[in-house]
């Protein structure tokens, strides 16, 4: 049962001590965000800002929440996925006085109830992962949009939804696409998703990846990371795509590119990373070999059509934590991990702190920008400034003890001289 007080709802406050240990561990591995906290905790540039956040409740997110509060913001939080909340971390934040409404295993109704509790604070800024908070504001609480200076979006799926919303003229305040920063999607999405997705698969199944046929649906940043790490573990990787450009990239990166219809009878492990629904459907399940493992690392759980699987394989049982066995009438078994939700967060701890350090530094700096400039920004989806990307990358290198070369004045003149040639 969940614990409810006036200003938070979590699984149990008794879990807070263990959650705090995790948060302290993450703080040790997020030096960029901690440097920003130290820089701004005295000037408090977010004083007077009320931030509603809807993002996976992990130890790394807790570091971001604490940093936002240190900079002067009032913060209220909910989880952006029913299975990704780490209950001990949620308890640690609640014990620290953060209005947080999150626990693992939310129903759909509870999920949106939690979002509504954060909206009740009357946010001036929103911080989202998947755009459910933004859509809830626009669709169920439109009167509150006028008070919002702007918001940020953390993930590819959410950015796609918000760009479509802006194109339709339905967006009511400016959004910064944190996901599209190089220091986010080239690191968090590739290295974070790759490692944490493999981690989720192994924690859920403990199978040997070496020698397995590993099918990756989608070769965007997340799929690329999963493919790279699976190959590193000794798997033979097949990639499916609908876009010719990433398909070509996958081929030149040394992966075999096939259609899902071809991959279905070959794969031992399937992972979807597309942001699109119905990537694996009935005919694919019917073709799979006995023991096939199916999982998803895209934001929503619609990539694997579990309704189709339930019709094909009516017998279903949990065989391990986060692993359900579906048995077909002919005896074949298909194993679904984490109910088709994000395997890296539902089956493991999510991305390593070191890559979330850069992503959440982008979130923090974007909050500062919106607090300063939000009223003057056009209502659109905006990219991160190149200068911010460069600043975060430089800070990260510095924390790693890495120095790079600097152009001389003569080299800068040569770079900028359009008349220079052979």
Radius of gyration: 22 Å
Number of structural units classed as domains = 2
- The separation of the N and C termini measures 74 Å
CATH class (first level) name of the largest domain: Alpha Beta
The coarse overall form would be globular
CATH topology group of the largest domain: Rossmann fold
Mean pLDDT: 96
Per CATH, the superfamily of the largest domain is Adenosylhomocysteinase-like
Largest sheet: 8 strands, mixed
> Can you give the helix content as a percent range?
40-55%
Tally of alpha and pi helices: 17
Oligomeric nature of the chains: single chain
The CATH level-2 architecture of the largest domain is identified as 3-Layer(aba) Sandwich
Low-confidence stretches: 1-5
Overall number of strands = 17
Widest β-sheet, arrangement of strands: 11-10-9-12-13-16-15-14
